[in-house]
Specification:
Number of domains: 1
Radius of gyration: 18 Å
Number of helices: 13
Shape: globular
Order of helices and strands: HHHHHHHHHHHHH
Structural class: mainly alpha
Largest sheet: none
Length: about 270
């Protein structure tokens, strides 16, 4: 991607070349961000508690623990019921299907800071990495074991149908729950997860956070993200030791995701 192009041209080209599912996910995220604004304006403190509970499910259990540490890197083992539950949390979190997410994330590690890295600030504008990576094409063959997994394939094939069923269920319970327990936490999850790419990876000359000793790539540890992203913000540590489910290394690097992993891991 030529970052000297205008923002409109970059978006137009990315949208035209994107798979249909990427365009649908972009529409869902726009709706989610509108819902977040609605919650900010009209939400009660009880609804915000519900939103944070949902964010814990989608970002903490769904993205951090299951999509990232378990499915992408197989850094620990757990009961099948937890893997399935966490996968569903990740699906509802709207970061893409488990197959899409894992494939793109594995490409990120394989081609870190190179043109094929969809998350790279070297090749993409900051705003694109933060909000529009769903428009990037990815080879699903990066996750062959998930392609053979019937459950993961089902969630991939019926990704948006699952979202519609979930929205209908919430509509029957409490219509406004679609805002505070679904769409608003989806927007928070998207922004938190992608901040790991737009903030916890940095261009030369930008000095935010710190690196694990010996690391020379773009990844850095950002304390604020370490907390709100369930430990994922200690990102340079992760790139140093990708198969370790414990991302926080120092005693003060709080890793909420690993605290939950310790409760369910079987190895």
């Amino acid at each position: 991607m030529n970052t000297d192009q205008s923002a409109f041209t970059i978006l137009k080209n990315a949208y035209r070349s994107s798979h249909e599912s990427g365009k649908k996910l972009l529409a869902l995220q726009i709706l989610a961000h509108i819902a977040l604004i609605v919650l900010i304006i009209n939400g009660t403190w009880l609804q915000w508690i519900g939103c944070l509970i949902a964010y814990t499910l989608y970002m903490g259990i769904g993205m951090s623990i299951t999509y990232h540490r378990l499915l992408s890197h197989r850094s620990f083992e757990c009961p099948l019921w937890f893997e399935r539950f966490g996968t569903l949390c990740g699906v509802i979190g709207a970061l893409g299907s488990p197959i899409t997410f894992v494939s793109q994330h594995r490409e990120h590690h394989r081609y870190l800071d190179k043109p094929r890295d969809a998350y790279s600030l070297v090749n993409n504008p900051w705003w694109f990495v933060q909000w529009f990576t769903m428009l990037k094409q990815v080879s699903l063959m990066r996750a062959p074991e998930l392609l053979r997994d019937r459950f993961c394939w089902f969630t991939h094939k019926h990704f948006f149908k699952i979202h519609m069923a979930y929205a209908l269920l919430l509509l029957l319970i409490d219509p406004f729950a679609i805002v505070y327990f679904y769409l608003a936490p989806v927007a928070l999850t998207w922004n938190a997860a992608n901040s790991l790419n737009s903030i916890a990876h940095q261009l030369p000359g930008v000095d935010i956070g710190y690196r694990h000793p010996g690391q020379t790539n773009s990844s850095v540890c950002v304390p604020f993200l370490g907390i709100v992203c369930f430990g994922e913000g200690w990102h340079s540590n992760h790139h140093y030791d990708v198969r370790n489910p414990k991302v926080g290394k120092a005693w003060w690097e709080v890793d909420l995701g690993y605290w939950i992993i310790k409760l369910v891991r079987t190895n």
